[in-house]
Amino acid sequence: MNGVRRVPALAIAIVLLAAACQAPRAGSGGTPAASATGAPDFTGRSLNIVTGGTGGVYIVYGAGLADLLHKKLNVNSSAESTAASVANMQLIRDGKADLAFTLADTAYDAAQGRTAAFEGKKVDAKALAVLYTNFTHVIAKDGAGIKTVADLKGKRVSVGAANSGTEVLANRILEAYGIDPGKDINRERLGVADSANGLRDGKLDAFFWSGGLPTSQITDLVSGTKIVFVDHTDSIKKMSDKYGPFYFNAKIPKNTYKRRRSKARRWSSTTVRSTSISRRASGRSRCARSARSRWAWPC
Hints:
Elements: H1 9-21, E1 46-50, H2 57-73, E2 76-80, H3 85-93, E3 99-103, H4 104-112, E4 125-141, E5 156-158, H5 165-176, E6 186-188, H6 192-200, E7 206-211, H7 216-224, E8 227-229, H8 236-243, E9 248-252, E10 267-279, H9 286-295
Parallel strand pairs: 1-2, 1-3, 5-6, 5-7
Antiparallel strand pairs: 3-10, 4-7, 4-8, 4-10, 9-10
Helix pairs in contact: 1-2, 1-9
């Protein structure tokens, strides 16, 4: 997967599980007992990983991690499909998830208790690892008269699923261009699968998506539908000044979304890091210390 940071999968799994052990949910038991070798025994532990929606990268990543934890460590792990970043941090806040995938800007919003999504209440959580870089896609149907973000005014635009990191980014990008998403566009709040289908079927003129590369729904869309990737990187400075230094300019590499019978191109994109988050607990459990000492991964 292009753009995804590659690290030993089992090492990540051990550390994520170890950190989650520090904050067991009600009824899930305490710190795992040591085996005869002195290593923590995770057998029978339950772990709920909250991910994202159908067609995105989080759900694939989370399912893979859950499967790895089950096969290698005998953990009763599950990957739950959600609206993604904002919803995931709310689930962490409410004690309904052990691990969450989220965009870095949303994680910071949650930790600071800022934005209406978190109602002024700080989410007691910690970042475990940077997973990969998310690329923001602003995609319009060719022929819809959309070449710039300003052209989105009056158009049918999906800003991402409600309570997703994509929606946060879309709203902030539109704001940076002086567009009110509640008034200046015909707004839809759809995940990437429904957004791609809507554009293909003529029900949308454009949509926002923030995800890893390549995103399968975009790959499928590009193969049969003429689209335009809309540059939006002029928004980066304004967003960084207002919301923090989470946003960077990067290129979507050639051949990531190559159209049939067309020359490969690179597109500029606003990027944000995807991170893994767990609920914070006081002190470090034995399992966390063990994992950290073995793989030297910051918990």
